């Protein structure tokens, strides 16, 4: 299974508009962070997790072929604001989008013109499927387990696929969800920054503690803001087995 990390930034992305900090002014391409998204592929199935406002830019370098499903973690704009840009992929058939009840409601509100009885010609042809944490779904040959985490007070979804798990925007997780993550070896998880607690996002130390609690062998940190510091410097602060993810990174699971 091939994982392509399309974006590792927060809702503002990095660099932040108007900011002159060391991270935002960095020439290191690893410090250019688009909004969070990733592509999961095997021999016959291609799944996108989240489709934020940078989707068009993120997907252009990749082969133009069918996307079998789009998983939505939650109904915030930085995670689903690019869904209108999937319309070229309707050449291969309707697009199947999977979301929990809260995110499903958000999608209907954000893209009402995609779900009307008499749709305007050319809008994306989306089949919207409701999913629930703890209930496995199958897209093509990929078995996917949605896992509920808390984004502050908002329940959202992470996803486990085989020995890989992707969790973004988490602040906490209920102990009842941990069995779904047993046996995860590679974890891609959010870590906003090193310092200054946030009401709805965990920090780097929180992410490391969480990764250790589930026994992940390799942990990559995503949803990183500019306060984390430049990639090269921030990486020196991380323990063995933990690394900063970066846009364009490829994982072979």
Overview of the molecule:
This protein is an alpha/beta fold and 253 residues long. Helix content is 14%, strand content 27%. The protein has a 7-stranded mixed beta sheet with strand order 6-5-4-3-2-1-14. Strands 7-8-9-10-11-12-13 form a 7-stranded mixed beta sheet. Helix 1 links the parallel strand 3 and strand 4 (69-71). The chain is globular and about 55 Å long. It starts with a strand and ends with a strand.
Offer a quick outline of the entry.
By secondary structure, the chain is of the alpha/beta class.
In helices, the fraction of residues equals 10-25%
Query: Uncertain segments of ≥5 residues (pLDDT<50)?
Result: none
Mean pLDDT: 97
Q: Can you summarize the main beta sheet?
A: 7 strands, mixed
Q: What percent strand? A: 25-35%
Number of helices: 5
Shape: globular
CA radius of gyration: 17 Å
Order of helices and strands: EEEHEHEHEEEEEEHEHEE
Secondary structure topology:
Elements lengths: L1 E6 L29 E5 L4 E4 L5 H5 L9 E3 L5 H4 L14 E5 L1 H10 L15 E5 L6 E3 L2 E10 L2 E8 L2 E4 L18 E5 L13 H11 L3 E5 L8 H5 L6 E3 L5 E3 L1
Parallel strand pairs: 3-4, 4-5, 5-6, 10-11, 11-12, 12-13
Antiparallel strand pairs: 1-2, 1-14, 2-3, 7-8, 8-9, 9-10
Comma- or semicolon-separated keywords:
253 residues; alpha/beta; 7-stranded mixed sheet; 5 helices; 14 strands; 14% helix
């Amino acid at each position: 299974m091939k994982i392509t990390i399309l974006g590792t930034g927060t809702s503002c992305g990095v660099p932040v508009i108007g900011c002159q900090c060391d991270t935002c002014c960095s020439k290191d391409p690893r410090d250019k962070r688009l909004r969070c998204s990733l592509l999961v592929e095997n021999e016959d199935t291609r799944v996108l997790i989240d489709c934020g406002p940078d989707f068009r830019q993120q997907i252009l370098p990749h082969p133009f072929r069918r996307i079998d499903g789009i998983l939505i973690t939650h109904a915030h704009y930085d995670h689903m604001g690019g869904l209108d840009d999937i319309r070229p992929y309707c050449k291969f058939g309707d697009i199947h989008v999977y979301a929990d009840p809260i995110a499903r409601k958000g999608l209907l509100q954000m893209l009402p013109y995609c779900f009307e009885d008499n749709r305007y010609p050319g809008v994306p042809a989306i089949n919207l499927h409701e999913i629930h944490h703890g209930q496995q779904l199958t897209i093509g040959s990929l078995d996917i387990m949605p896992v509920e985490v808390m984004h502050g007070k908002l329940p959202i979804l992470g996803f486990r696929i085989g020995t890989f798990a992707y969790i973004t925007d988490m602040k906490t997780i209920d102990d009842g969800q941990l069995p779904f993550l047993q046996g995860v070896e590679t974890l891609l998880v959010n870590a906003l920054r090193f310092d200054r607690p946030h009401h709805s996002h965990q920090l780097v130390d929180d992410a490391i503690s969480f990764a250790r609690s589930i026994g992940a062998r390799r942990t990559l940190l995503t949803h990183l803001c500019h306060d984390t510091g430049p990639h090269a410097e921030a990486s020196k602060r991380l323990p063995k087995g933990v690394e900063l993810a970066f846009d364009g990174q490829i994982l072979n699971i």
